[in-house]
Structure formats: structure tokens, C-alpha cells
Design goal:
It is a multi-pass membrane protein. By secondary structure, the chain is mostly helical. It has 13 helices and no strands. It has a domain of about 160 residues: MetI-like fold (Orthogonal Bundle). The chain is flat.
Length: about 325
């Protein structure tokens, strides 16, 4: 009897060589690949983080530290909270804070305008082609150009008051009345910047479920009902983003308009923290006080932003 050939014992499949035990933890190449995958996100994010730390966070820390030092004869000497006390005692800074409160109250209007225009464009209501063709035009203009244009339009003897006179309404001193000037400047800023917010809203509409809009049409929902019960809940995160960016723009991007249209006047009524900081740094040569005002502005934006996010999240849950 012939002995069994090597490798045939063990039944079917015995001809297949037996694999040895797999190395614990995989091969070295596999381990290196997994390590590279884990490190890849950090390597990609590292340049951005470095830029933020060097160009944003570190100057912020230096500015906060500088706000506790003195100006003039006490240049560089620690003064504690004296700069912040001086801010609260300065009527111009109190006016700037009061105007910040006014901006916060006007913020829903500044967000609603581009939101409604984006809704009209998306729902193709009559006139949507006009909105689509002209909505972004103001955003490409320099604030200096915008301010110069509206200085001419809002002059006491300018075209706007001429139109009001034909309507039987007396002339308005748009830029010379302390009770009107801040509203005029904020209105011009909203007109000049709402194009960017409208683009963000249109991007948000791209993520909205079209089936919900179709269901609203089938159910006979009116346009206000569609906006309230379908559009607003579906764009909650977009609305939050636009609220925050619009607020930051109002508090940090109105210097050009203020400088050209009112110069902070009349009687300091159009002062905002941003303009106050420039006056203290550029005209009064008080950099430590300007740093204190910058720190206060940062805290204001942080607190208002967090409150807005909290309120909008609560409204989104209620809807």
C-alpha cells in the first residue's frame, strides 16, 4: 500500500497550505498607515490653527494685557481697572454703548430683509428676477463710495428731501439731527451689506427639503404660513449664522460709513465702539484706553452672540 502523499491528509482542502498565525496588531505597514490616517487631520488643520494663534489669539492676549497699563505719564505702568473706569465715565463711550443696544434691536430687521429677498427668489414670486439681478450690487461698493453717494442723497437740500417735499412731508435733517443720524447710517449699512447675507440664505435654501414646500402648496398654505412653518424651521442654523455675522459686521465694519457720513456726529450721537477706538488711538494718542475699549467690544460681541444663539436655538426647538 502506497503511503499517502504529503499534504493530502486532512480531507478536502488539505492541498492548501496552512497559513501561519497572523501577527498581533497587523503588519508594520498597516500600523504606519493607521498612524498616518490619525495624524492627517491634525497636519491639515495645523497651519490654520497656527495662523489663528499667531495673528488672532496672541494679539488679543497682548491687547487685553495692554488695557491694564497707563497712557501718557504712566505709559506702560500697571493701572489696574483705571482704563475701564475711565471708559464708563466718558459720555462718548456711553453713547457708543447705547448705540450698540440700538443695533441689537435693529438686528432682526437687518436679517429679515435678506431673508425675505432670498425667500422671494427661491419661491419665484413675481419680481424675483429683479431681486436676483441687483441684490449683490451694493456689496461690491466701497464704504467710502457708499457714504459719499448717500451724503448727496440725504443732504438737507438733496434729492430725498425733494421727494418728501413733493409728498407734502417737511424736509428731514438726516445727517444733522442727533435723533435721526444713527438710524440713517445704520440703514445705509444694511443696504450696502445685505447682499452677502442673501447669498448665505440662498445657500441654506439649497439644503431645504423641497418636499416640505410642495406639501405646503398642496395644503394651501399662504406665503407667510410657508415662511413661518417651513422656511424658518428648516433654516435655523443658517439664520443663526447670519445673525452672528451681521452683528459682527455692524459692530466692526461701519467705520468707513461713520467717517464719511457723520464723523461721529452730530454731538457724538453716531459713535460706535469701533469709531471710539479709532479716535482714542489715532487722534488722542491713548493706546491703552483704546485697548480697553477693544476688550470691551470683544466681550460685548461674545455675550450678545451667545445670547442670540441661545434664543434662536430655543425658538427652533419650540417650532
Amino acid at each position: 500500500m502506497r503511503p499517502a502523499a504529503p499534504g493530502r491528509a486532512g480531507g478536502a482542502g488539505a492541498g492548501t497550505p496552512l497559513a501561519g498565525p497572523a501577527p498581533v496588531g497587523g503588519s508594520r505597514r498597516d500600523r504606519d498607515g493607521r498612524r498616518s490616517e490619525r495624524l492627517a487631520p491634525y497636519v491639515l488643520v495645523a497651519p490654520a490653527v497656527l495662523i489663528i494663534v499667531v495673528l488672532r489669539l496672541w494679539p488679543l492676549v497682548l491687547g487685553v494685557n495692554f488695557s491694564f497699563t497707563g497712557d501718557g505719564e504712566r505709559n506702560g505702568a500697571p493701572v489696574g481697572l483705571d482704563n475701564y473706569t475711565a471708559l464708563l465715565d466718558d459720555p462718548l463711550f456711553r453713547t457708543a454703548l447705547r448705540n450698540v443696544g440700538l443695533l441689537v434691536l435693529m438686528l432682526p430687521i437687518a436679517v429679515a430683509i435678506p431673508g425675505l429677498l432670498a425667500t422671494f427668489i427661491y419661491l419665484r414670486v413675481p419680481g424675483h428676477r429683479l431681486f436676483r439681478s441687483v441684490y449683490f450690487f451694493p456689496a461690491v461698493l466701497s464704504p467710502v463710495i457708499v457714504g459719499a453717494i448717500f451724503n448727496l442723497l440725504m443732504a438737507y437740500d438733496g434729492p430725498l428731501n425733494a421727494v418728501l417735499a413733493h409728498a407734502g412731508i417737511g424736509p428731514v435733517d438726516w445727517l444733522g439731527d442727533p435723533h435721526v443720524a444713527v438710524f440713517a447710517v445704520v440703514g445705509v449699512h444694511v443696504w450696502a451689506t445685505f447682499g452677502m447675507a442673501l447669498v448665505v440664505f440662498l445657500a441654506g435654501f439649497a439644503t431645504l427639503d423641497a418636499a416640505l414646500l410642495d406639501a405646503a402648496r398642496v395644503d394651501g398654505a399662504s406665503l407667510p404660513q410657508t415662511i413661518r412653518h417651513v422656511v424658518v424651521p428648516g433654516l435655523t442654523r443658517t439664520i443663526q449664522f447670519v445673525f452672528i455675522t451681521t452683528m459682527i459686521g455692524m459692530l466692526t465694519s461701519m467705520f468707513g460709513l461713520l467717517y464719511v457720513m457723520t464723523g461721529g456726529g452730530p454731538e457724538g450721537s453716531t459713535y460706535l465702539p469701533e469709531y471710539y477706538i479709532w479716535v482714542q488711538q489715532g487722534q488722542m494718542n491713548r493706546p491703552a484706553l483704546a485697548s480697553a475699549a477693544s476688550t470691551a467690544l470683544f466681550v460685548i460681541m461674545l455675550v450678545v452672540g451667545l445670547l442670540q444663539i441661545s434664543v434662536l436655538r430655543r425658538v427652533g426647538r419650540d417650532d
